[in-house]
What does this fold into?
Amino acid sequence: GSPSKVTGLIYSGFMPSDDADVLGFSIPANVFVGVQLHRLARLARRQWGDEALAARAEGLFEGIRAAIPTHAVRNGTYCFEVDGLGGCTRGDDANLPSLLGLPLVDPERLLHDEATYDATRRDILSRANPNYYCPRPHSDGCPDGRRCDRWCGVGSRHTPGERVWPMSTI
It folds into this structure.
C-alpha cells in the first residue's frame, strides 16, 4: 500500500469488492466500523457489564470521530480514501459501505455531517466521480422503436468499463 500515518482511522487494505485500496483509510468503511463500535460500547456496558470492552470500543470510536473532519473532508465533500498525509481520493464505489450509503450505515449521523454528505452526494452523482457513468442515449432509437435511454449511476473500478451497478441506483 501507499505510505500513511496514524490518524485515529482504521487502516484497511481492501474495499468490499476485494480491490486494493489506493490510500490506506477508507472513509465509508471507517464510518461503518465506527458506528458498530459505538453500538458495541453500549451493548458491552448495558448488557454484559463489561466496562473494559466498552471503554476500548468507545476509544476507537472517538478516534474515528475526531479524524473524519480533520482528514476526510476536502472542499466541503468527503474523500473516499485518505492517507493521513494529505492524500484524498475522490469519487465513490457502488458497493457498501460507500459514501452514498452513509445514511444507511450511520442513520443517527454520529460520524457524518448532513451538509457535507449532501455536497458529496452531488459530487458523486456527477462526472467529477471517475466511477460515475451516464452514457448518452442512442440517437437512432432502439431497433423496436422504443426510446433507448440507458441509466446513469455509479460503477466500480472492480468492473472496468461503463458499467453501472444497480445497487448504486437504489
Remarks:
- The first helix runs from residue 27 to 48.
